[in-house]
Amino acid sequence: MKIAAAKIFARYIVNNNKKWINNPVISQKKTFKKLIDSGRKTLFGKDHNFNTISDPMDFAKQVPVRDYEGLRSYIDRIVCGEEDVVWPGKPLYFSKTSGTTSGAKYIPITKESMPTHINSARDALLTYINFTGKTGFIKGKQIFIQGSPELDYKNGVALGRLSGIVAHYVPSYLQKSRMPSWETNCIEDWEEKVNAIVKETIHEDMTLIGGIPSWVQMYFEKIKDQTNQNVGELFKNFSLFVYGGVNFEPYKSVFRNLIGRSVDTLELFPASEGFFAYQDIPNEEGLLLLLNNGIFYEFIRVDEIQQESPRRYTLGEVKTGINYALIISTTAGLWAYNIGDTVRFVSTAPYRLVVTGRIKHFISAFGEHVIGKEVETAMKVATAETSIRIKEFTVAPQVKPEEGLPYHEWCIEFDHPPEDMDAFELKLDAEMEKQNVYYQDLIQGKVLRKLAVKPIKKHGFEAYMKSIGKLGGQNKVPRLSNDRKIADALEKIK
């Protein structure tokens, strides 16, 4: 794509998107109607009396909130080849993701939902161009570190990882500048794949690099090991890092060290279930919630989600500063689907949000209900204006210590450790007490003692992820958990 054409197209897309940005509630009403109209023709729609549904209140009465396990009986029928189950016809693809209790999950992607994944990623880049005027990344090579594009088949439906499926839709005008090669992208072993990517890209003019931070970090480290150069020194025109899936804050200092200079960043909020949001204003908190993607959003307050019938809020009812569980209904036939992410709105004009954690990823062994956003913020503050650099970390409760009171154990792999570990622990704990009043009460009430840091050996987290078969791709280490499964496994790594 030529520079001038890119700028013109960017301006067109941004202006076109203002139609739904400026009319958010109306946009959601239109989406809801289209979804229900299509859903009436399906087995799911008949089972849930879609013919009687005229508004979101009816929908909430007829369709309970479910996660994958709750929808599994329907999805299993689709996997077996049945049509018109949750959406008219058959899906184009199944996005295969790792499950927790159920093994593999097969998320349907339909001819209606597939374009939204592609167009949203495109619009994110075009919005960045329009806002900044920067087009330098177009001139060089781009890479998105992703899963294999090789597909299997289930009863005539293609099956693969979302990032691999998306690789089949790279526009022709980007094919020449897109890396790595198809052959390298198809390598399944993650370490072998990263080594091959380094070999292919090391002499190229890389201008845009994207992927989940922890795996891009691995790529950057191998580059530095092999060339003895910072990434920003080797790739002199590298100007934009695109990421999604996790909070980038804990990685910032390590990336700054590996790159050796600052580069622009662009945050996305994609998932197999849908593309939900992207950063529309650089360096400003919050991602623009996408209301033109065939997704109807509902929200449940996190502090109410354990209730028997928690209230489901529509877009026009949400408020800033409150943690919500994100519930979606989509053109892929996911109805009142709890994706497991929690979000907090930072603006309602337009609707911008931040991802605060995962419903299942929390610590509440003592009633504290600590969430991912809180531990990440505490880490950010505790390491600010210090030489401390964190490569990876996770937090777990230590319920039965050998001596003394229980505590939260922070398993941290340092890129540059603190000079005074005791002082660092005290600072980290003080920030946690500020973040979570229940945690503070437990500390002051001597139910818990202050947190303890457990340093993890170099590459320990990589070794752990490899041991459970989840090294690379879209897999990421949970920031915290309510048990010691991960913490104990890290302790055993030699």
What does this 3D model show about the protein?
The chain is of the alpha/beta class and 494 residues long. Among the domains are: 133-271; 362-492, GMP Synthetase, Chain A, domain 3 (2-Layer Sandwich), CATH 3.30.300. The protein contains 19 helices and 20 strands. Strand 14 (337-348) and strand 15 form a beta hairpin. Helix 1 crosses helix 6, helix 12 packs parallel to helix 14 (252-259) and helix 15 (372-383) crosses helix 16. It is globular.
A few lines on this structure:
The chain has 494 residues and is an alpha/beta fold. The chain is built from 19 helices and 20 strands. 37% of the residues lie in helices and 23% in strands.
Write the layout of secondary structure elements.
Layout (H helix, E strand, L loop, with lengths): L2 H19 L2 H16 L3 H5 L8 H7 L5 H12 L13 E6 L5 E6 L4 H19 L3 H4 L1 E4 L7 E3 L2 E4 L1 H5 L5 H4 L2 E2 L2 H4 L4 H12 L4 E5 L2 H15 L3 H4 L5 E5 L7 H8 L4 E8 L2 E5 L8 E3 L5 E7 L21 E8 L6 E12 L2 E8 L3 E2 L6 E2 H12 L5 E10 L8 E10 L4 H15 L1 H8 L7 E4 L4 H8 L17 H8 L2
Parallel strand pairs: 1-5, 3-6, 3-7, 7-8, 8-9, 19-20
Antiparallel strand pairs: 1-2, 4-5, 9-10, 10-11, 11-15, 12-13, 13-14, 14-15, 16-17, 18-19
Helix pairs in contact: 1-6, 11-12, 12-14, 15-16, 16-17
Provide key terms for this protein.
GMP Synthetase, Chain A, domain 3, 494 residues, alpha/beta, 23% strand, globular
Main sheet specs: 11 strands, mixed
Taking all Cα atoms into account, the compactness measure Rg is 23 Å
Q: State the secondary-structure class.
A: alpha/beta
The strand order across the widest sheet is 6-3-7-8-9-10-11-15-14-13-12
Q: Taking all residues together, what is the mean pLDDT? A: 91
Tell me, briefly, the overall form.
Answer: globular
Regarding quaternary structure, what we see is single chain
Got a strand count?
A: 20
The helix content is 25-40%
Number of helices: 19
Low-pLDDT stretches:
none
> Hey, roughly how much beta strand do the residues contain?
15-25%
Cα end-to-end separation: 49 Å
